[in-house]
Amino acid sequence: MRSCVLLAALAAVPSLAFTPPSFENLLKLFNRDSTKEHGLLHDFKKPLFIRRNETIPSNLGNVTQSQYIAAQAIVDEALDRVEEINRARFASPSRNHYAPRERGQQRGQRGKTAFTAQSQNELQADHFKMTKELKDAVALVSRIDALNDNQTPGVSGNKTFGPVEKRAAGTFWMETIARKGAWPWGKNPNHKVFRNVKDYGAKGDGVTVSRLERASSRLPQIKGLTAANTQDDTDAITKAIAEKDECSGGCYGSTTMGAIIYFPAGTYLIQNTIEISYGMQVIGDANNPPTLKSTKSFFGTGVLSTDAYWGDGEKGEDGRDHEYYINTANFHRQIRNFVIDTTQTTRPKAMAALHYQVAQATSLQNIVFKLSSDAGTEQIAIYAENGSGGFMSDLSFIAGKIGIWGGNQQFTAQRLSFINVRTAVEMIWDWGWMWKSITIENSHIGFNLTSGSGDGHVGSITVVDSVFRNVDIAVLVANANSSDTGRTSISMDNVLLDGVTTWLREQSGKNAPKDNAVPGNHKAIDMLTVGRSYVDSKLDDEKGIKEFASSRVDDLVTWNNPDGLPKLPYGERPKPQYEDRSASDFVHVKDSCKGDGVTDDTACFQKVLNDNINGKIVFVDAGTYILTDTVDVPLGSHIVGENWAQLAAYGPKFQDPKQPRVMLRIGRPGDVGLLDMQDLVFTSKGPTPGAVFVEWNVRNYKKQAGSAGMWDCHVRVGGAIGTGLTSLECPPSRSGINPNCQGGSMMMHITRQGGAYLENVWLWTADHDLDDPATVDNMNKMVQTSVYNARGFLIESINPTWLYGTASEHSVFYQYQFYKAANLVAGIIQTEQAYYQPTPKPPEPFKDAVGSFNGDPTFPCTDTEPCDEGWALRVIESSNIHIIGAGLYSWFDTYTQDCVPESNCQKVMTEFKNNHGGITINNLITIGATNMINADGKLIPSKDNLAVNAHPFWSDIVSYSPSGSARPGPAQPVTTPPDAELGDIVDRINSNLHEDCMVFPECVDMDNPVVSSCAAGYTRVGYDRGDCVSDL
User: Fold this and answer.
1) How many angstroms separate the CA atoms of 305 and 146, rounded?
2) What is the pLDDT of residue 110?
3) How many other C-beta atoms are found inside a 10 Å radius of the C-beta of residue 803?
4) Where do the record's region annotations for Disordered lie (predicted)?
5) In degrees rounded to 5, what are phi and psi of residue 214?
6) What is the C-alpha to C-alpha distance for residues 826 and 144, in angstroms, rounded to an integer?
């Protein structure tokens, strides 16, 4: 019920930002004299309304009931508007629906957004803006509410607020470590990379009163409210984000404005949405994660947001409601170590803890979402409308209506728990999403895949190593079979259902739901698929539900299985944060090196690494470190980058594509043990056509996934200020080749002796500029580039390797190639083809460098091995590889997109050739290719597997196994045969050595010292004839 007659009139006027009446004007509407000296009366003779009886605390000076009533009316009207905006936004989420543009209408932007969005009741006035007057009213109401309700966290009774005490140092090293970082390629030499919110006035004591000092200066009747006894955490946090320069409204992206926004332990009350700018890492104390607590009356859609809307009635670059950032280019963000608590918020009812829109190189980690447990709550933890990739891990969701209400092209989620959440996950839309190590307890629905609108545009999910306990419906799906409105494919691998009534409910149109019940409410799923599956080039099952046994490579799984899953889970390790270490355990690279983007830091960087392998942690201060030759990262290294510090290849040693040279070599062949790296960017300065940006040689300890690993590290070739490979030097070319735009030979290589653990690693050759040239241009136009990199990600490892949340984009030969590789799990992987192809056709401009690496494709220009585009994925002569989801996209034919609706941007997307066994790919999604797969010379057409009859017409296969990889059976227990049989077994192995060594076509007899020995100065590290490596 509205508080006064004024509000009905206000509601009838459409507005982009609610502008509340002033105190003085509101009083005039009540026919009261407002000409007193200070413009306000002490009280009303006869109040027309009272929202509720409130006692004005004595320590608020001369605040009167009349003033409170006036303030409350303003607040109530604003909250009504917030509720209206939030409900409208939730009713019409952005789904990345596309319609093809007319020929010649291409604009400078990312391929996935180069379509005009179909109208779906587009919401224009959807971004609530706090005005100065409203903040003053909120200040007064919040203060009185907090003191009268006597329920502010950390406060007992009517506490008298004294001056802000000097903050005590926390125990987390990040709070006290010295700060020396800077962005030398930026325009502001004084840019502040690290910002502690308490240095900007945030108190974190659980008490927030917004703008009371400024309110008292304009409303002198409110006495006793001074800077000494008021604090506004919301404004202080916003000030920390917006210091001097930031990439926010009017800036689509920047590589020179990044910063760390740090929160010490405490409780920070938040009254309105905090918008997080591009390139920012928002990090809390890892030892005592701070709480961000929304106030009783909250103004905004999410407590935190990376998805701001202008609300100006315009359309953005992606054709949808005008947002600050382009949803498929909202890169480089990080939020970790928080509790986000909305339990005390009563208005608006519809709200989220996090309004989240992201693309690659983004992550959420170590966050607890605490929502209202009321039966009718409408609170959502994460509301993620659209985007193009991302990574989330180690999240807990407690109570609320929905845990994650999300849509994204492809995403990786690991180690999530949902407790007492009505619906754990509701998908708005997606093409592919991997959910690993998920626990859902006491929910009505685990995964709702009906997409809200019922359009069925949820492509696929893969649920791995997960548990559902006391759940009514594990998976709710709109269409498991039809491509007319959208088919949804489902893979469940190693899943336990305990206390589950229905594992799958199919809810299609007007037909009655079809339930797949769980007998006895308990079910252990080894492997189950819903959708189209293939073995070799033959359709194994068109649309049905298939359940079967499968096995896993022993070295890829963990020792522990606390949930009693059917199989041991695949190994994982959360990103290390060194919570038990102090700032004195870190060594600053800038104590020895410049990092100024000009000075050659090769020798000093190498020395810092060599000198600090005995327990010290190398801290790479923000900056750009020029490397003119190979730098070796020794075994035992621990490296932490500050806000994605940059290592840049430069100079003559990286110029020859026929003799590639490594910029950063991780370990030496034969190394086994500890090594970890995080928060770094590997890039270049100027053309470096012979650069291999990262070579990985270290193996993990047995069954210790992540003992040698890399988290939140990315390769970036061109597209950024300082690289000399931007649209200024390398504009999009539709004919010819600019030799000065050859950026690299390979982005990453895991060698045969290596074995890596990767989480959230993005390998990107620039298709556009990352830096907005005019940060006040709110139309967010991006300019494309033609930058050439020969190879994406080459994996030759035969040792256990885990690739979680990786992507590789825009290379000439291939994006991923598994060559004679084995013992690997990857998910979800994502690719895009180079926008300029087939002009030139691959392997140009690196034709003369073909053969510089094992397995280089030759592009013979046949129907099955065409030469129009590079390969998205090649799996050659490999075994025991499990790819848990892949989104592979081809959006362009020489910068035009007419090819997308017809799926003829390229002829064949992937190649599987001469493989041996144990290879499976679940939930393969392709867009833009005529054929999804070349299976040993046999093609699998995309049109046969069309998943949706709407643009962009993606195709989907729920399970594919190439020739020789018939679905493996369950793993058998290892037994020791009697001695009498042992000799027969050895003889049989020796007589079938070639077949038994499927992966190793040139196995050596290790019992024969003549053939198994290596030359002097070399050590054997494997079983192939060539597996001898130098001791140097």
Assistant:
1) 25
2) 39
3) 22
4) 93-114
5) -70, -35
6) 54
Cα 750 from Cα 794, distance rounded (Å)? 6
Model pLDDT, residue 430: 87
Using CA atoms, how far apart are residues 618 and 69, in angstroms rounded to an integer? 58
On whether the CB atoms of residues 352 and 323 are closer than 8 A, the answer is: no
- Positive or negative torsion for Cα 303, 307, 310, 311: negative
Hey, what are 564's tokens?
């009693």
The residues facing 933 across adjacent strands are 910, 940
Q: Out of 471-485, 614-628, 858-872, which region has the weakest mean confidence (pLDDT)?
A: 471-485
* Residue at 333: amino acid letter: R
Report how far residue 684's alpha carbon sits from residue 691's, in angstroms, rounded to the nearest whole number.
9
Per-residue burial over 281-301, b = 16 or more CB atoms within 10 Å of its CB, e = otherwise: bbbbbbbebbbbbbbbbbbbb
The whole-angstrom separation of Cα 933 and Cα 102 is 30
- All residues at 6 or more sequence positions from 214 whose CB lies less than 8 Å from its CB, including other chains: 132, 136
CA-based nearest residue to 667, from 640, 710, 699:
699
Task: Tell me which DSSP letter residue 309 carries.
Answer: B
Q: What are phi and psi of 1004, to 5 degrees?
A: -110, 155
Chain centroid, CA 710 distance in Å = 15
- Enter the tokens of residue 87: 């409900």
| Average pLDDT of the chain, as a whole number | 83
* Percentage of residues of the chain with pLDDT beyond 90: 64
436: its two tokens: 């690993």
Residue 206 C-alpha from the chain's centroid: 30
Residue 1012: its pLDDT value, please? 62
Q: How many CB atoms lie within 10 A of CB 456?
A: 26
Residue of 981, 806, 864, 919 whose CA lies nearest to 389: 806
The three-state DSSP-derived secondary structure of 413-465 is: EEEEEEECCCEEEEEEEEEEEEEEEEEEEEEEEEEEECCCCCCCCECEEEEEE
CB-CB neighbours of 544 under 10 Å: 13
Give the residue carrying structure tokens 């759940």.
Answer: 471
**Strands 380-384 and 402-419, bridge-based pairing:** parallel
Distance from C-alpha of 866 to C-alpha of 859, rounded to nearest angstrom = 6
On the question of a cis peptide bond just before residue 828, with omega within 30 degrees of 0, the verdict is yes
Q: How many CB atoms lie within 10 A of CB 708?
A: 28
Task: Quick: pLDDT tens for 261-312.
Answer: 999 999 999 999 999 999 999 999 999 999 999 999 999 999 999 998 887 7
> Has residue 108 got a pLDDT over 80?
no
Closest CA to 192 of 239, 224, 141: 239
Residues, the chain: 1032
Q: What is the DSSP letter of 1003?
A: B
Q: Do residues 608 and 587 make contact, with C-beta atoms less than 8 angstroms apart?
A: yes
Confirm if 929 and 892 have CB atoms less than 8 A apart: no
Q: Which residue has the higher pLDDT, 21 or 337?
A: 337
Beta bridge pairs of residue 838? none
Looking at residue 228, the DSSP 8-state letter turns out to be T
For range 501-509, the mean pLDDT: 86
Q: What is the mean pLDDT of residues 809-838?
A: 97
693-751: per-residue pLDDT in tens?
Answer: 999 999 999 999 999 999 999 999 999 999 999 999 999 999 999 999 999 999 999 99
Cis peptide before 574 (omega within 30 of 0): no
Determine how β-strand 757-765 pairs with β-strand 801-809: parallel
Using one digit for the tens of pLDDT, what is the confidence trace for 19-57?
444 444 443 433 333 333 322 222 323 332 333 445 555
Give yes or no for a contact between 774 and 728, defined as CB atoms under 8 angstroms apart. Answer: no
pTM of the predicted protein model: 0.86
DSSP-derived letter for residue 946 is B
Q: How confident is the model at residue 1007 (pLDDT cuts 50, 70, 90)?
A: low
Query: What are 906's strand-pairing partners?
Result: 929
The DSSP bridge partners found for residue 826 are 803, 883
- Nearest one of 312, 361, 409, 362 to 779, comparing CA atoms: 312
Please give the single-letter amino acid code of residue 698: V
